[in-house]
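Bumping my old thread because nobody answered last time. Still need a sequence for this structure:
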């Protein structure tokens, strides 16, 4: 079962338009998409708690918990804004679940963010900078997959796609700032 989802995610990452369109249309893939999107962050939270002297009590530390969960919240918000832009302004007929499933399956690259936390458990490095760096690279690739999805399934021209991607990047950055200042304070820095 997991091999099927891994295979789908790998095909989405390799920009297979047929699979991207199938993932977008298949409602049965919503739960696996949510799991793929959230699992690395939950694992990072647990691994991050191991590097704090207070152990699992660190899960309730705002600096650990929110620094791990702000990027996926910001990406979710930016994808939602892109959905609103496309449906309200460009009059594209689509469902939010479809665009989210595609981005979530593309987010399998976020599993790379677990590497710094695994290395930190063994005392080899401080994971927080690398987490942000890996998330940034993963987020950019997710937007590249979104670019392919919008052009192939919805037939949008390159200008509309670039406007949508620019809005996603700007929204991601703004939501990172807003959530960071709201939940952590001025010490929050994504990178």
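Sorry it took so long. Here it is:
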């Amino acid at each position: 079962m997991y091999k099927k989802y891994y295979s789908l995610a790998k095909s989405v990452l390799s920009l297979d338009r047929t699979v991207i369109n199938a993932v977008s249309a298949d409602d049965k893939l919503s739960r696996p998409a949510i799991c793929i999107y959230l699992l690395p962050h939950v694992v990072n939270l647990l691994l991050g708690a191991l590097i704090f002297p207070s152990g699992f009590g660190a899960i309730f530390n705002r600096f650990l918990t929110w620094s791990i969960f702000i990027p996926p919240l910001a990406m979710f918000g930016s994808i939602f804004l892109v959905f609103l832009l496309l449906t309200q302004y460009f009059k594209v007929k689509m469902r939010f679940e479809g665009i989210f499933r595609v981005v979530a399956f593309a987010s399998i690259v976020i599993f790379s963010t677990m590497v710094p936390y695994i290395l930190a458990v063994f005392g080899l490095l401080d994971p927080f900078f690398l987490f942000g760096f890996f998330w940034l690279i993963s987020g950019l690739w997710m937007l590249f997959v979104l670019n392919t999805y919008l052009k192939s399934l919805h037939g949008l021209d390159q200008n509309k796609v670039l406007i949508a991607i620019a809005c996603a990047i700007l929204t991601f950055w703004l939501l990172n700032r807003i959530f960071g200042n709201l939940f952590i304070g001025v010490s929050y820095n994504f990178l």
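The radius of gyration is 17 Å. Let me know if any region looks off to you.
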